[in-house]
Amino acid sequence: MKLALTGLMISTLLMATVAHAQISASDVPATLTITGIARGSSEATCALAANASAIYLRGDVSNLIELGDDADNMTFVPLHIEGNKECDALIEQGKLSYRFLGTADDSQGSALANASTGENAATGVAIGLFDNKGKPVSINSTAYTVSKDAQQGIGFQVVKLKDQTATAGTVHGVLTIDVERL
């Protein structure tokens, strides 16, 4: 009798384990993408470092500066290049530059267009780009030489497009900062 009861308990436990394994087991595959480059030891390896990957801008549509004006309330993001000694040599020789790329505004083509759409999107505005002194920087055109200057970077401010009426709403843009070897 004890043997039969023990056999029944073991069978019940095994069934519970199998049932539990079948209920809670869910294989979820994962994909890992690996990229890289093989390089010679004397090649420059440079990487852009920015102090922010996303920023939040605010602007009162009744007090916006016009596209082309100097910034008066920009959000500034410092940029610097990190790398090996060959990269440092390129910077010292003035052979690296930044270029700011994105969808240009439809007014003058020098600011980052507002990509927000729909009924909540701001109209008549763009995202102005500025140097560390608040002077306008044109998108998709000028290359700016990389330096070791701690004040190097890019500023952002919502700007009013010329000959358009600015309306309140959401503003969104995506900027690519390209590092070019000259």
TrEMBL record:
Cellular localisation: Fimbrium
GO-annotated biological processes: cell adhesion involved in single-species biofilm formation
Keyword match Signal: yes
Domain of life: Bacteria
Keywords, comma-separated and alphabetical: Fimbrium, Signal
Record-level GO cellular component terms: pilus
Lipid metabolism among keywords: no
Domain Fimbrial-type adhesion: 65-179
Pfam families xref list: Fimbrial
Signal peptide: 1-21
Family recorded in the similarity comment: Belongs to the fimbrial protein family.
Official protein name in the record: Type 1 fimbrial protein
